[in-house]
User: Fold these one by one.
Assistant:
Number 1:
Amino acid sequence: MNIVFIILSLITTYIGAAVCSNATEISAERVSNYCYYCSNCPRPFNPASPYVTTAPSNTGWCAMMSATSSPDGAYTRGVAQPGLCFSSGCSWKTVAGRRTWVCCCNNQDLCNAYVPLTCYYCSTCPRPFRSSSMYVTRVSSTTGWCAKMSSSSLPDEISTRGIALPGLCFSNGCSWKNVAGRSTWVCCCNRDFCNTGISTSKPMLSLLAAALMMVIAVFKNI
């Protein structure tokens, strides 16, 4: 009889542990309860736009869809339909018979504001920059932008890299900005791991082209 009670106790303990373990896994699952929705979303995306609303997600996933894989393309946003998303990230899928670039996320509410993006992060980055350095890590951007900041516009100066703060970046390129009350050389980009070096802005390219033309003209007159 004692043996029977011992066996029953062990079975009960095992079942209880299994139930608790299963409950823990379910509660730890990431879900998005609300998503941004817009059929013709503003560019750049602005959640305060009258064309943008929020919708409850019945699948736990939010999605962005476009005919192009470019972060600057025209996207629709909304709740991911059942069977559309299984992991976070972007990939080509067939939606309603059309090849569509689909970006899925479920890490937080309203996560489909920006295309999922990974940036390099370092507070005092190595010079020259090396992504394999122990001081360089990778972080997921929640703003759709990566940034590189320095007190100088010279390419070999000390810089920091990471996620661009909300409202800091609106276009690709470099310019002087006021960051925390200081004049800072900020380079913005919206591609995975794009904040490796300083990208040359369009105004800078125009100046370089004009300078080159002047040099050529001088040599022709000599």
Number 2:
Amino acid sequence: MFDRYGTARTDPRGRRTVTTVPRDELARRIAGEITLSDDPGATLRKWRTDFDVSQTALAGQLDVSSSVISDYESGRRESPGIGVVRRMVEALLDIDESRGGERIRRYARVISAGFESDIVQDLREYSTSMPLERLYETMDATELVRGDHDEISGHTVINSIEAITRLSSEEFYRLYGQSTSRALIFTGVTRGESPLVALRVVNPTPHAVVLHGLDEEDLWEHAPSLATIDGFSLAIANRDLDDTLEDLRKLP
């Protein structure tokens, strides 16, 4: 029986496999990030808001006053020790589980892929293939080049700056190479040159690439021609990133 936070994959022979990421591993990673942060309060706030948990709800789960959470996050109270951090993280996960565990599953998918959540901001396999147009509508994206495929079976949202500065060439290959029948969405893009050049050394390419954070006049001039040569659809979007990620996570 598979863990409910397992991630399904298809091996080269077409067989479905599942990699499981225990809740304890997710809790350990979050607690470690908060504890080692230069600003633990801000990092705690980031995770709390990402799990869509209010200060009041977290305080209630911990049986403390909401002012305690506020003081930790603002730095008015001394940074919490590892024991307190672990309790807070477990409380966040407990609340998410009580709501169905959607965010735990999301981060389990990212961890299973072998990347940190600040590099891969979302990774989703759809229950069935869907038209590429639906992704564009969700993101308010403008298509500039139509590629060889009209449907996708998932998406990966990648922080382009973090990926470029932190991933090795082998990790880049693994990131792109696992993304054949899906859309790669790059955030924090200024021109689009770096991710598109990196795509050229990987075969096969994804069905679609969306560059988020720029307008058409800012796009690297060779981007459309590269997309045409390699056969993938290319689009741009500049909608608020947090709203975009929230809506992407509602896709099937």
Number 3:
Amino acid sequence: MFSGIVEALGRTAAIISEPPGVRLVIDEPTVAATTKVADSVAVNGCCLTVVGMEGTTMAFQAGPETLARTNLGELVVGSPVNLERALALGDRLGGHFVSGHIDGQATLVKIDDHGDWMDYYFSVPRELAVQMASKGSVAVDGVSLTLVRCDHDLFSVALIPYTLRVTTLGARKIGDKVNIETDILAKYVQRLIDAKQWPPSPASV
């Protein structure tokens, strides 16, 4: 479990083919200093297991599903990534509950530039849009953000200068894809709504 408060920007040091997946090697001294093999770390919001450590680098394995569903499949050597270690019992929760299980991707379609402040607009699949509400929470590349505008296939977030500076979002451009995790509570509400339309099970007929 994570909070969506990015701890550091890592750098993609190597991408090693390990069919059918890859090994991602991420360099970041602060996070690496307090991380060990088998720990969970959110990389651009995607929960991955540390499978190797060497100096200031951490190695992760990403399989076909992870590479297809997230933007980790688009990383190249040198790409920055958002990093957050898993929450420890008793930690303060500054963002919102984030599982690290990516629901899909959104595409940055518009940027309103207000100097040091930015409003980002993303197109998103409708099945994810229905789990979003204005003033609710969403994790974008692992960053906990408050939703501003929510339409049937679009949402917006307002980014403060600090967030733009310390996360990958500050370097995002029109057309970039970002990882999306909707709020956990919204998933259960959607499930309950959908369940009302299910046909009766054979046992209840």
